[in-house]
Amino acid sequence: MASSPPIIFVTSIFLISTLAFAQEVKPHNDTSPYEKAPFACDVDANPEFAKFTFCDQKKPIDERVADLVTRMTLKEKIGYIKSSSKEVERLGIPYYRWWSEALHGVSTTGNGSEFNSARNISGATSFPMPINMAASFNVSLFYAIARAVANEARAMYNVGQAGLTFWSPNINIFRDPRWGRGMETPGEDTLLTSVFGVAYIKGLQQPDDNNPEKLKVAGCCKHLTAYDLDGWKGYSRFTFNSVVSKQDLEETFNPPFKSCVMEGQGASIMCSYNKINGTPACADPDLLKGLVRGQWKLNGYIVSDCNAVQFLYNRHDYAKTRIEAVAMSVNAGLDLDCDHESYVGKFAHSAVNAGLLKVPEIDRAVTNNMKTLMRLGFFDGNPRKGIYGKLGPKDVCTPATEELARETARQGIVLLKNIRETLPLNPTNIKSMAVIGPNGNATRAMIGNYEGIPCSYISPLQGLSASVKTTFVRGCNVTCEEPILDEAKKAAAAADATVLVVGGSTDIEDEFVDREEISLPGEQEKLISEVSKVSKGPVILVVFSGGSMDVGFANTDNNIKGILWAGYPGQHGGVAIADVIFGRYNPSGRLPVTWYPREYTQYSMARMHMRPNKTSGFPGRTYKFYTGPTVYPFGHGLSYTTFDHQIVSAPKVVKLNSGKKGNPKSVDASGRACKKSTFEIRVRVKNTGKMAGGRPILLYSTPPPVHNPPQKMLVAFDKVFLKPQEQAVVKFRVNMCKDMSVVDEQGNRKVAVGNYKLQVAKLNHTLEVRR
Length: 771
Prior knowledge:
The radius of gyration is 26 Å and the shape is globular. The strands form eight sheets. A six-stranded mixed β-sheet has the order 11-16-15-14-12-13, sandwiched between helices. The protein has a five-stranded mixed β-sheet with strand order 18-27-26-21-22. By secondary structure, the chain is α/β, with parallel strands linked by helices. It is 26% helix and 18% strand. It has three domains: 33-394, TIM Barrel, CATH 3.20.20; 413-602, Glycoside hydrolase family 3 C-terminal domain (Rossmann fold, 3-Layer(aba) Sandwich), CATH 3.40.50; 642-770, Immunoglobulin-like, CATH 2.60.40.
């Protein structure tokens, strides 16, 4: 993929007053563990630590870890393979909480991080949700956000308010629009999700160039694998059996995790609750030891989703006893048990005594865990004396990180509809505006789930009212059982323009909360239609959601001039929405998911197959396989300017050095054919309009009809920012085996022989692949 453009920041030309914290801080019941004990190997606090090899920073990490593990008793080792790890006082190892989250900023979820206004840091930058980040199609932005989050995380660690291990990002494929956690992901496309995961992991971890073993914080890619159902019509993620073909596993579900480990060098993988073809993920040695540790060569630890080990016994009925559940998971390759009841802590010793679990397996697990902490500097003494020691409260919620949050929200907004170029609105021509809808003055709803305490909030109402006199009518709450129409219609009839801010919140889509419908919640559609009939001026619809919403009725309503998808745009989403509506920012986002019509919900969410089935009438999933009508397709997104695309150069033929044996229709993508299968495509992009703007350039391939392939697949993408009449050439280096291979029915990657259709915008190019 071509290198990413620099992040372009657009600063609002008006001042916005910030909102004081509207959330209550969630304090932990006990004192911070980081205040109770000295830092590991703090020789200034205790010179005795200097005698330990594991405290000698000049020694190789593997030697230090081996020394540490040999000094620990079995009881002490077991205490450090559970997520609330017990202190080892005689060795000066403090208590440690592994579970922190950093999905889109340091989070209150988990017990490893805490905000406390009575101490040092009471909030952190709350960026837009990953689904918004992905809509920017800007890799440099993904990386910059993760770097900013890592800085704030380290600052919090230095003052005793966070750990160093963060269980983010979520790189599951957003397979079905009803999934409540889809907002946490980069969307439905395997390439986009993989690229996002690698960039985010690298931004969090930031290995030292001089010593790549050193990490700033440790990321974790989750949830492995085929996990994208929480609670739908009697199905539960805790017991769900994902029946998945080898083809779909290799083609759709596993690639982001493989990229996370092999390209991103992620320090951790989390195994999921569900079964995969009958075997729980956290008890599957072929998955954990064979694939993750063996083939992908994970340099780090494997952690269970929280309580997944005990669920082997009391939910899946896979283990006959609690002791067997612990033995199964550790023997399968699990290193760390996230468990509120600490199954490993309670039953691992009994598993050893029963002969079900060998001590070397525990040694392996604690070694992987301690090595990760060693790479993070946990055993280097006082962190304030380390390479990140200067980070502190002054480095959290800085003007730069808050502007980065606003810019991310701007780049993630997608313009879905714009009749007769009604948008952008000119604030000098509009003297009054009606802001209507359940999310019109949203604060908490803007930041989605796995949230922290934001630095501040700027709601849509605040953002819009900074430029135009506004009247706000909520109309109804998000679930919208009974909209109050009279007041809303009166406001719209009197205003020069109406902005309806509707859609979802964590009330209708969240962890544990899958949707059964993908239309707007409750009577929101009625509220919108009734208001649009009487509005004096143009009506603009702004939709909050993680998954797709069927707004087809609004797309065909001529009274609704523009539609924006805002996702869950973070703490300052109101600024971004106002900047787009008033033309201070030219929207450049594209949908990272297909928007299906509401009839799609007739098909079972529990069906894991990706491809359509003519016999049952199932139309398939995601843009790669879905054959039905769409409200908006994957990659859709309008701009206030126009762009011209031209393929400058692309090969017509690519010859694979594969010999003459084997299947004449495809060749092995891992063989010698891959050594000389890279080529370059150049695309010239020109801004032919009158407004500067960004443009994601998406390169698709339609492969030959071999092995029942996708009907279309994203091969590469990049983003350019161009002034009016400016042009640029985007270069894509494409490897046939890595980027354009398909997966056969046995789960093997193949390069199909024949004609491929390459597509950029409306341009098509035929590429012939020969043996």
